[in-house]
Prior knowledge:
heterodimer, A: alpha/beta, five-stranded parallel sheet, 7 helices, 5 strands, globular, B: mainly alpha
Amino acid sequence: MRVMGKCNSHNPHNSYNSYQTMENPLLWLHGDCLNPHSPALQAHPDAPRVFVFDDAVLERYQVSLKRIAFLYECLLEIPRIEIRKGNVTAELAAAAREHICQRIVTVESVAPRFARLRASLQREHNLPVEVLSLEPFVELSPSEQTQLDLKRFSRYWNPLKAKALSLNQSFDW
Amino acid sequence: MKLKTDFTDRAELIAYLRETFSDAAARSPEVSDTRGGRRAAETALQQIKPERYAATRNHLKGSVTRLSAYLRHGVLSLAEARRAALQRGGAKAEKLVTEFAWRDYWQRVYAQIGDGIWKDRESLKTGWRPADYADKLPDDIAGGVTGLRCMDSFADELRATGYLHNHARMWLAAYVVHWRRVRWQAGAAWFLAHLLDGDPASNNLSWQWVASAFAVKPYYFNRDNLEQFTDGVYCRDCQHYRNGCPFEATYGELSARLFKP
């Protein structure tokens, strides 16, 4: 799996503060990226890694046991995974204290809850969160990115189609 | 609270989960045969047949990939899946890559509208007002006891396996929204509770597409369509086949019956 560099300029989530690298990272794995080769795990192969089953989400979506079992099996293939359950930010803060970590590293998610949890970790627990990019479905230039029309699928897809159907698209724009 | 990560086998894991997630187990205790994890995802990826997918994907027995749960949870990336499809199928992978693009599209819309995925994107084109639709999913639908063999089988499969073929999702969603006139949000929440690939964006926006809140017209079907893509396996044993099948009509008749001018 190709991993996007930390300083990938077109992704606003990426942040890089030199002082942070002096501090131990805790890897926050979430339900949008359970790949054992995720950019966070590749960037910090020795760091502690934690997944939290979010009680609020389990309740809100009335999540069935089979979904939990599926997630759990995904997690068990990630070496040295620590699995927790409860309030996500409180559990991550507890794990950070336990492992003596001063910052959190994770990968991007578009879910609004992810943004809220990230803000809460920074604001209420004083844990800076670095968000790494995932490899995009199709690599777009900044101008292609801004011209995307999401009104209907066809409007989004027609300009991208040729690139998406080519194996040889350039990754070095 | 910290949870256990050391199990001797799947049975021990499931027993532990039933105890630890007792609320979820009380709601729906079933566990799917579909395994989670990167190994299972890679096996599924190795088995994709892009050309067969293009030719047969609408049929319930068609050559679909079963990658959705792995893609939804990022066990596999869409980029990996796209590359594998093109390497395997070349130009014949277009249909499959287009399906992957739908997920990318839904995610991009989600990034733009966030929790707005729970609200109608556009006004309905059914002639009905949002208030004309029931808020709650009727128990007979979720319980698989409507008496309609097709819809009951889909509900049972959803509950037992956490998976439904895309065409079955469309038929079931259309039945809930248009025949039973239930708000799409109720159906979307039901699917999210059960689908292993349950993603708020893909799921809700697809329900909106069926409902016509994110499409130029509502999606609906008739019995000919369902029989064609199921080999009639449900109709064959259905008590309503010759007696009151709600789907047995032309598209014109159904449109007049289901929608207001």
